[in-house]
Amino acid sequence: MSESYTVKAEAREKVGKGAARNLRRNGKVPAVIYGDKQEPLPIAIDYKETFLRLHSGGFLTTVATIEVDGKKIRVLPKDYQLDVVKDTLVHVDFLRVSAKSIVTVRVPVHFENEDEAPGIKAKNGVLNIAEHDINVHAPAEGIPDAFTVDLTGMEIGDSVHASQLKLPKGVTLVDDSDFVVASIVAPKVEVAEDDEAAEAAESTSEDDAKED
Fold first, then answer.
1. Which CATH architecture has domain 103-185?
2. CATH 2.170.120.20-classified regions of the chain
3. CB atoms < 10 A from the CB of 85, how many?
4. What are phi and psi of 211, to 5 degrees?
5. CATH 2.40.240.10 occupies which residues in the chain?
């Protein structure tokens, strides 16, 4: 699990598009804290700090502490919105969590040792990733940073299934089917070369027939 961090926030008295635009002009991002059977709490947080955390990785899988009005609230970022044109951060949603909270999150999958997979290194196979991240139920204080898949020894045609993932204690898959996470497939270039060879052979046969 990534190291937790603290965010200083201000409670928002005004909500709506006009108030939100004014916040952004002043280097803030409108956000809301919700959940735990409590009323939503509109807040404003620093734009630059939040934007950097968003792009440093693990933003949606790392629990944070928000300090607002003298209170400390444990939260998990659940969603964010970006401007479709400028790609700037527009809004963030935070979910209240506790030590006992079970949350649903998408955890990224990392692949290692491609050079140790004969199907890739020796036979020019291609790693076909079906799932770049996996949806899981996990304790809020025990969300894994990522799942690591070791490709050592894998050949063309081999697959990695969900049942092969090493799940930490308390973490379960949302989808209980044994779906394919990734597989090693034959390179498409070989198929293209075979097609070209077949076309060339067919063309040669036609030319020979014309000469006859």
1. Beta Complex (2.170)
2. 103-185
3. 6
4. -65, -35
5. 6-97
Under CATH, which number does the domain 6-97 receive? 2.40.240.10
pLDDT one digit per residue (tens) for the chain, 212 residues: 678 999 999 999 878 888 888 999 999 999 999 999 999 999 999 999 999 999 998 999 999 999 999 999 999 999 999 999 999 999 999 999 998 999 999 999 999 999 999 999 999 999 999 999 999 999 999 999 999 999 999 999 999 999 999 999 999 999 988 999 999 999 986 455 556 666 665 665 555 555 55
